[in-house]
Amino acid sequence: MESGRPDRDSELREVDQVTIRFAGDSGDGMQLAGSQFTSTSAIIGNDVATFPDFPAEIRAPAGSLPGVSSFQIHFASHDIFTPGDQPDVLVAMNPAALKTNLRDLPAGGKIIVNVDEFNEANLKKAGYTANPLEDGSLRGYQVFKAPITRMNARALESSGLGAQQIGRSKNFFALGLMYWLYDRPLDPTLRWIDEKFAKNEVVREANKATLRAGYHYGETTEIFAVHYHVPPAHLAPGHYRNITGNEAAALGFLTASRLAGRPLFYGSYPITPASDILHELARFKNFGVRTFQAEDEIAAIGAAIGAAYGGALALTGTSGPGFALKSEAIGLAVMTELPLVIINVQRAGPSTGMPSKAEQADLLQAMFGRNGESPVAILAPATPADCFTLAIEAFRIAVKYMTPVVYLSDAYLANGSEPWRIPSLDDLPRIDAHFASDQEAFQPYSRDPETLARPWAIPGTPGLEHRIGGLEKADITGNVSYDQDNHHRMVTLRAEKVARIAQEIPDTEVFGDREGDLLVLGWGSAYGPIRSAVIRAQRNGQAVSHAHVRHVNPLPPDLGDVIAGFRQVLIPEVNLGQLRLLIRARYLVDAQGLNIVAGRPFHVREIESAIQQLVAPGRKARVHA
Amino acid sequence: MPETAPVVLTRKDFVSDQEVRWCPGCGDYAILAQIQKVMPDLGIPRENIVFVSGIGCSSRLPYYMETYGFHSIHGRAPTIASGLKASRPELHVWVITGDGDALSIGGNHLLHVMRRNIDITIVLFNNQIYGLTKGQYSPTTEFGKRTKSSPFGVIDTPLQPLSVALGAEASLVARSIDRDVHHLAATLERAARHKGTSFVEVYQNCVIFNDGAFDAFAEKDVRPDNTLQLEHGKPMVFGKERNKGIRLAGLRPEVVDIGKNGVGETDLLVHDEQAADPTLANLLARMHFPEYPVPVGVFRAVERPPYEDLMQEQIDHAIATQGPGNLEALFHEGDTWIVEG
């Protein structure tokens, strides 16, 4: 695995994968350094997966523990599915960053510290009574002390920037150093700086100068005896770009509008971690996208329902607390049978919870969180790039079945990124969005015999004037009805309509054999860690397979058969067992759960260990039943 | 949409086949009748008209109109109307609401639709009571009133709907009375023709739970003496004998007798609904019976670009400057790379 070759004074060693975590104060630009490192790694052909982790506070006090922001990137010369359980390398820009991140570093891991920030004041803010760089407490790690603040200041002393502005460039110095250490080119970031700071020559030149200075510092200093090369991965041929889940979802919704030939309307109220979708879509004015920043979550969905009624592809987006506020209006969309997509970028709850942290705990809210029998379709993307594909699928279903569709993303998918193979528009499925126009045959609540969808009859169509609303509708005519038999029939019809979506869901892909000792069943962002853990189990020769549901309601029609092929079923999810509850109820199967609700995605080793408890002979399962 | 040949419509063309289910004698009938009467004069094809409502007695109105209609959920009609109008600016959109729907559960939406100046017509049926839920006090019920939910008297200060509308920058603000059918029709027509959000408060009698609430000034025989008909550019004169007027005394209006104590028409306030400054409209909105006659008519009517026009302008400008959106180019935005097969 390691094929060393000498390069100047430092040996260049080849490795197949590395995980780096940049950690610093939230004002230190760690997200920027991390995302630049990601883009560069992707451009040179590595597979990449990232995990940004930042405080919900915009600027917590500098140097404090709550103010630490980090960005983890896993890059490899092979297919990878997660941003890595543990970093191999921690870049700590101050004592608080070291303190909050050290526990994730394995024994023997590398720590690159900005030694200049380990002064008395910063140590105190981080709660250190002694300097960890001097008291021997880091003996189990490889510590590299780099004077990043001073070196950056020296590189920029004649830049024309003030002291404070110079301090803001030190993330580029650290990035340059990491580029040298992991043998990456500077060009992509230099190009990015040119574009980003096109109008500010002083800042532009300063950032470029310190990026280069960091790189040269690595080259000339003697503290690193080895540096590393990670060769390109073998990805499927095609054009690629790096994409986050929120970017992919926004692009997907825009693409759906093109595929349907209908304008996109987005009603939203700012909320972490969904706001980026609003920012993205607001950029697309020349595509005719109408973004409506509403006065509250309810107005956002109300406006989307109004737009859907008018014939737009209507979308509303939010996160858990906002999704709760939208519940009543989702019920209205169920009753009026209008096409509507609601994206919920889940975050840690309940209530305000932990706004920037990931969780998968809104599934039952999406399923059942409304009054009455109020069925909706539910989709859940598995990876950041999958957010694109399912955005199109969400509108296809919404329009074809005239139903609200809930799209459950989460903070991990939204902010995480991976390479996305850019599709050709011609390869994407058209969405058949057609309106009723036949005056003779029109009945507001007549139904398509195949899908049970009612006609989409939009205002402006002569002769189809009719009234809809939240009161129960008489079958066919859509008039208000309190008739008991009619109500039962309509409740059943609405449920059956959503159930029929299953007729189009493709067979479940099983990774591994279709029969065996254990099926690990997942949904949403648990995909990456599950897949990695299952690969390891299969390498051990264990009969373990992975199936992942992206259509969560209705479930794929063959899922029961898939489950029946395995002796046991394990469902890891970042909640206390929500999919498990549905699977148990639906298939009467004794599925086991792995449930760690810590505001972060699973570590691969956690799932690996749960698998071992279930498949290793003679060991009693310790997972939740 | 297909072009529709101009057809002369009548009031009956706007009457739907649904049976009207308000209590006999309810003021809502008169408002429905005037809306149906005004419709043909507006010359808008039926298919381009949409009535959106929330919850409450008034909100049943869309069922009775032979147009498109959306009877939505409590308080949210302005949101649905906003999304509809923003995405389909060519439609003629009305919001029918009541004092509870608009000012209580939907208060926030009411404010924001007006400040955005979305080109819709809002008709607020103000009966100062919750009717559909059978007689609880509403946000406009008078202080101290005993109702089913306030057996010892209301302790909430009522909202002034027109002050709320003016505070939220509505570009047309008006008031009328269910029983004054000619005035009501004229006011509704003004509102419907206005470009931007128009807000019409209609004093509407609830025969069951708040009967007679407005009789002291709304009944035909007392109306001339106890209401002030606002007319743009005209001095504020009222009374059966047209012998009373409103004069400004410092920062307060006062009722004066024309021809007495040397007061002439030139001393009276002259109504200016188009004043850029809303002070006069605010002052009129705070005039309450019995200290003052109740002002009715258009308080304020100013021109301001509607939200959906500004939205369309931004789209047009983006297309003009950046060219129509190129999706393939957007896919390839930023750094991309090729993996060879």
Describe this structure in words.
The complex is a heterodimer of chains A (625) and B (341). Chain A is an alpha/beta fold and 625 residues long. Chain A has 21 helices and 24 strands. In chain A, the strands form 5 sheets. In chain A, strands 12-11-13-14-16-15-22 form a 7-stranded mixed sheet, with helices on both faces. In chain A, helix 4 (148-155) packs across helix 8 (201-220), helix 6 packs parallel to helix 8 (201-220) and helix 7 (187-196) packs antiparallel against helix 8 (201-220). The radius of gyration of chain A is 27 Å and the shape is globular. With 341 residues, chain B is α/β, with parallel strands linked by helices. The mean pLDDT of chain B is 96. Chain B has an 8-stranded mixed sheet, with helices on both faces. Chain B is globular. Classes of the chains: A alpha/beta (625), B alpha/beta (341). The interface between A and B is large, with 74 and 67 residues.
Keywords:
heterodimer, A: 625 residues, 6-stranded mixed sheet, 21 helices, 24 strands, 20% strand, globular, disordered N terminus, B: 341 residues, alpha/beta
List the helices and strands and how they pair.
The complex is a heterodimer of chains A (625) and B (341).
Chain A: E1 5-7, E2 10-14, E3 17-25, H1 30-43, E4 47-53, E5 68-76, E6 89-92, H2 95-101, E7 110-114, H3 120-125, E8 142-146, H4 148-155, H5 163-168, H6 170-181, H7 187-196, H8 201-220, E9 226-229, E10 238-244, H9 245-260, E11 264-268, H10 275-283, E12 290-293, H11 297-309, E13 313-318, H12 320-325, H13 327-336, E14 340-346, H14 363-368, E15 377-379, H15 386-401, E16 404-410, H16 411-415, E17 417-421, E18 467-469, H17 484-499, E19 510-511, E20 516-523, H18 527-539, E21 544-549, E22 551-553, H19 559-564, E23 566-572, H20 578-587, E24 592-594, H21 604-615
Parallel strand pairs in A: 2-9, 3-6, 6-7, 7-8, 11-12, 11-13, 13-14, 14-16, 15-16, 20-21, 20-23, 23-24
Antiparallel strand pairs in A: 1-2, 3-5, 4-5, 10-17, 15-22, 19-21
Helix pairs in contact in A: 1-6, 4-8, 6-8, 7-8, 9-10, 9-15, 18-21
Chain B: H1 28-42, E1 49-53, E2 68-71, H2 77-87, E3 92-98, H3 99-105, H4 107-116, E4 120-126, H5 161-167, E5 172-177, H6 181-193, E6 198-203, H7 215-218, H8 223-226, E7 227-229, E8 237-238, E9 244-249, E10 252-257, H9 279-285, E11 294-301, H10 307-322, H11 327-331, E12 336-339
Parallel strand pairs in B: 1-2, 1-3, 3-4, 4-6, 5-6, 7-11
Antiparallel strand pairs in B: 5-11, 8-9, 9-10
